[in-house]
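Message: I would love a firmer grasp of how sequence relates to backbone shape in proteins. Thank you; the sequence and its tokens follow:
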Amino acid sequence: MDNLTKIIVKWSGKEYEIELTENDTVLNLKQAIHKQTGVRPDRQKLLNLNFKGKPPQDDFKISRLNLKPSFKLMMMGSLEEDIAEASRAPEDVPDVVNDLELEEIAIENQEIYLSKVEKRIKEYDIKMLSDPRPDKKLLVLDIDYTLFDHNSPAETGAELMRPYLHEFLESAYEDYDIVIWSGTGMKWIEEKMKLLGVSTNPNYKILFYLDSLAMISVHTQKDGIRDVKPLGVIWGKFEQYNSKNTLMIDDIRRNFLMNPKNGLRIRRFRQAHLNRATDNELLRLSKYLKDLAVNCDDFTMVNHRHWEKYKPKRRHNAGNS
């Protein structure tokens, strides 16, 4: 009887247990994943399955990987119905679900949510990847659909990376310390940053990562209970950063509910295979970030919803845009 290898596949917030024999191949693994998740083998991206630093081919035997018992494998991939729905969606449809401007001011000042922020400041442990630099402003970046299309099929991470990502980060690093904040788990964040080459790029450094555990839940009349990203968690841990010098970029405006004047909603980067050649959002954002850093002393005085039309004034009058 063949020895069994148990693998835990993490996908879309759930875990799936798969058993394979010593003679099973990567293709057999993908077929087993297909049975449990519905994601076709050709749509699957197995993020942390490697042999000598490279993804193994389909005919590669799983036993040669010497996986630890109950090895956790992270997969990216889309169901056919989801891909079809995304393909039918018209472009530039207003994201009504995330448009919560009527509740922004009320929510950011509610004591119950400020108490949650204080709890995160005390209990959330930040793993520093580099040191804060004197006189630098702070840029907080989302990952999914902001820097990376995580829902389209591709052979490599580079195909799903938003165009000009590294140029954008290198330019921003001149004026800003950079934090990555995703609503996923820390392991996912670390894997995606490796996949995109962000964690190893010599031209810029990331200050630290924040995951879903740093977020708080708020209640909105429109959407009920939602998780958001309160910048106060960072400000409470680092005196250098505050509302005047911090900007958060995300594709979901709801994430700014605790700090509506510090959020900039970016256009979603989806269907990378269709939009990669024409998407220049990060190039235009680079100019905006540079203008802010040079000309603006208080980011809350600028309406970031109209960032594409921003015309910097003289420094002492930069807030009146």
Remarks:
- The longest helix spans residues 281-295.
- The first strand starts at residue 4 and ends at 11.
- The radius of gyration is 21 Å.
- Residues 104-317 form a domain with the Rossmann fold fold (CATH 3.40.50.1000).
